[in-house]
Amino acid sequence: MASGCELCEQDGGILLLQTPQWRVIRAVDADHPAFYRVIWNDHVSEWTDLSTADRAVMMGVVEAVEGALRAHLQPTKVNLASLGNVVPHLHWHVIARFDWDARWPAPVWAARQREMVDAEKRLVMPLAQLDQEVIRALQPGTRVN
């Protein structure tokens, strides 16, 4: 834990699942409703701060979240990013993108291409149900195709 680190002191969004090593949250983003983060619990800021084994664990979690989004939403694209410029705490963004979203085809941090009203309602399933599918994908022995 690092004092003043937002991701050490808070969940970072709607907490779906937490283990001693990592947690998965859903970010609250009206323009990109299927926006998840995989956060390493220990305070580390760079990918190479993790051991090879821990990097494999984290990428396995990222893969499971991406797989759940692809299987249940059929997005146009899934964006994966590990930026951490504002919050120096290792985390991966896993964002389902659609050709109708506010910034498509630009990155999620670019200027809006269009206004979005009730983007969540455009998803093929309610977020609460999608959250449960993401949690299910993270259970040991589960493989999402």
Description:
By secondary structure, this protein is of the alpha+beta class. It has a single domain (6-137), classed as HIT family, subunit A (2-Layer Sandwich), CATH 3.30.428. The chain is 26% helix and 19% strand. It has helices spanning 6-9, 52-73, 127-137, and strands at 14-18, 22-26, 35-40, 77-81, 91-97. The protein has a five-stranded antiparallel beta sheet, covered by helices on one side. Helix 2 packs across helix 3. It is globular and about 40 Å long.
Q: What class would the helix/strand composition place it in? A: alpha+beta
User: Rg to the nearest angstrom?
Assistant: 15 Å
Considering DSSP H and I runs of 4 or more, what fraction of the residues is helical? 25-40%
Stretches with pLDDT under 50, minimum 5 residues: none
The shape, in one word, is: globular
Mean pLDDT: 92
What strand line-up does the widest sheet have? 1-2-3-5-4
